[in-house]
Design goal:
The protein contains ten helices and no strands. It is mostly helical and about 290 residues long. It folds into two domains: about 50 residues; about 220 residues, MetI-like fold, CATH 1.10.3720.10. It is flat and about 90 Å long. The N and C termini lie far apart (about 85 Å).
Length: about 290
């Protein structure tokens, strides 16, 4: 019948439209992938051309300066016998990471305490530090501590103390967030067995919270390493300051110098990420044993 033929025609047109649309979508997908791969190939080629145009003699000739500055032939009055560059940045980062983790852990616990004598100062410290950029904290330490102590403080220690104080505030908030993610019932169960607050935290809560805190803590530690570059504003001989001095001396090779600096920062951050991933695997719940 006429109605049946019209229905068949509509069905055929619908099937043709679905097939055409599917083919068009496939073509667009292939075109998009081809364009994306083409852009990647173009960028890779430009990188190769840039690397071929490098004056590698400048890179290799100044690499030791970027790594250790003048060590061990520095001035006897210089801190660490003229050490500087990447080594200085690493030393600052290691000290700041170690001290800020311990300090941030205690501040975070104080932030959660019911005792106002502990909670209010911890909260004020966290909010004050987090409400200011790192460079301001560096200036605070550099200008105010010598006035308060009436003693000279080397720029290296000024920057390291500022990094430590700044990072401790963020670690404290990470600790607080990790502990709050633990079910309240675990606190109550631990108290019912006769454990004190300190024992509950040390044996039950913190081992579990640490697993959740690792990604955020590692991200903060990587930020510390990169933030050591801000220490150049007070004259610390870290990697960025040394690179700036080399660039001012050579004048015509900024691309080589700063590309090398970027590669050194990247290798340091990537190595920290690998260590963090390995640590996170080792601290999976199946491998962490909680002792009562």
């Amino acid at each position: 019948s006429l109605r049946r033929r019209r229905g068949l025609t509509r069905s055929a047109l619908g099937a043709l439209w679905v097939r055409t649309w599917g083919l068009l979508r496939l073509v667009l997908t292939l075109a998009g992938k081809t364009l994306f791969l083409g852009l990647l190939a173009f960028l890779a080629w430009q990188i190769v051309l840039g690397l071929r145009s490098f004056d590698w003699d400048v890179v290799w000739g100044n690499l030791s300066t970027l790594l250790i500055w003048r060590f061990p032939h520095g001035d006897p009055h210089e801190i660490l016998w003229g050490l500087g560059g990447l080594s200085f940045s690493l030393i600052m980062a290691v000290i700041a990471i170690t001290v800020s983790f311990v300090l941030g852990l205690f501040i975070g616990l104080a932030r959660m305490a019911e005792n106002r004598i502990l909670r209010l100062p911890a909260t004020a410290y966290i909010e004050l530090i987090r409400g200011n950029p790192l460079i301001i904290v560096i200036f605070w330490v550099y200008f105010f501590i010598p006035v308060l102590l009436d003693a000279f403080l080397d720029v290296f220690w000024s920057a390291t103390i500022a990094l430590t104080l700044f990072t401790a505030a963020y670690i404290a908030e990470i600790v607080r967030g990790g502990i709050q993610n633990i079910a309240r019932g675990q606190f109550e169960a631990a108290y019912s067995t006769g454990l004190t607050y300190a024992q509950t935290m040390r044996r039950i809560i913190l081992p579990q919270a640490l697993k959740q805190m690792i990604p955020a803590i590692v991200g903060q530690f990587i930020a510390i390493f990169k933030d050591t570059s801000l220490a150049y504003v007070i004259g610390v001989l870290e990697l960025t300051f040394v690179a700036q001095g080399l660039n001012n001396r050579l004048m015509v090779h900024p691309f080589e110098i700063y590309s090398t600096v970027a590669a050194l920062y990247f290798m340091g951050c990537y190595a920290m990420s690998l260590v963090a991933a390995r640590l996170e695997r080792r601290l999976t719940p199946e491998k962490v044993r909680l002792r009562m």
